[in-house]
Amino acid sequence: MGMIITVFFIAHILGDFYFQTDKLSKEKESSVKYLLFHGLVYLLTMTGLSLAVFRFSRRLFLTAVLIAVSHLAVDFIKCLLSKKSVNERFLFFTDQLLHIACILTAAFFLLRNTGAPVYDYLTKISTFGDGIDVLWLFKLILLILLMCKPANVIFRKYLLRYKPDPDPEGSPSPKDWQRQEDKALRVGGLIGSLERILIVIFMIMNQFAAIGLVMTAKSLARYSEIANNKEFSEYYLIGTLSSMIYSIVLSLLMFF
């Protein structure tokens, strides 16, 4: 059962984050065409990965399809609520919790008695050399995926309320400001992803003290801004600690 849940969650993360661009995420809120396209991509991801890992069975295929249909239904309701000025952060986190609940419910009630045996090529991996635990490998893949784009999206929405206002004096034009903002998000997202991946690696290696070195190096790089801007330092501290807690908690849930 653990392998099934892990694969379904990998498919969800891929379909709902990595295969969904920012443009598609925005356009689907006002366009049924984009919403259906997202649903199709999610369906292909969920069924494709499930059938690539597990031996085919009608129950497995129907479970993957049911998860994709429920995902589309939840997204449709979210789009309707977004037009009624419901808080964006509340909608995002509720949306993801409902997706997780749908995956767990479908997997538990439809596959708990039948299971889903993996293909021979995965069985061979588990006996290669000293042996590699296939479930451990897929959990690692899921954890690394969670450390990158999903985490960036989560923290972007969560930290929005704490973000310092731009200095009105000497501010660039709106177009230049948006360009700088987009670049800052890309760079910050990359740094955050690398930071969380390093924390995961150190957690797996039981090198917990090394996590402090990551935090120190990151703080040194932003020292001047932290020292001279109280609002930024508070924003930076909230983001850094939240990112660290996120990485450590998920690592513990996966492997400890």
What fraction, in percent, of the residue positions are helical?
over 70%
- In total, how many domains does the architecture comprise? 2
The biggest beta sheet reads: none
Query: What is the count of helical runs?
Result: 12
DSSP strand count = 0
Rough shape?
Answer: globular
- Radius of gyration over all CA atoms, rounded: 21 Å
Strand-and-helix sequence, N→C? HHHHHHHHHHHH
> Averaging pLDDT over every residue, what do you get?
86
List the quaternary state of the chains.
Answer: single chain
Taking pLDDT < 50 over at least 5 consecutive residues as the criterion, the unreliable ranges are: none
Beta content: under 5%
User: Could you tell me how far the N terminus lies from the C terminus, measured between alpha carbons in angstroms?
Assistant: 18 Å
Structural overview:
- This protein folds into two domains: 2-133, no CATH class; 148-164 and 176-255.
- It is globular.
- Helix 1 (2-18) packs antiparallel against helix 5 (88-111), helix 3 (32-53) packs antiparallel against helix 4 (58-82) and helix 7 packs antiparallel against helix 12.
- The chain contains twelve helices and no strands.
- It is mainly α.
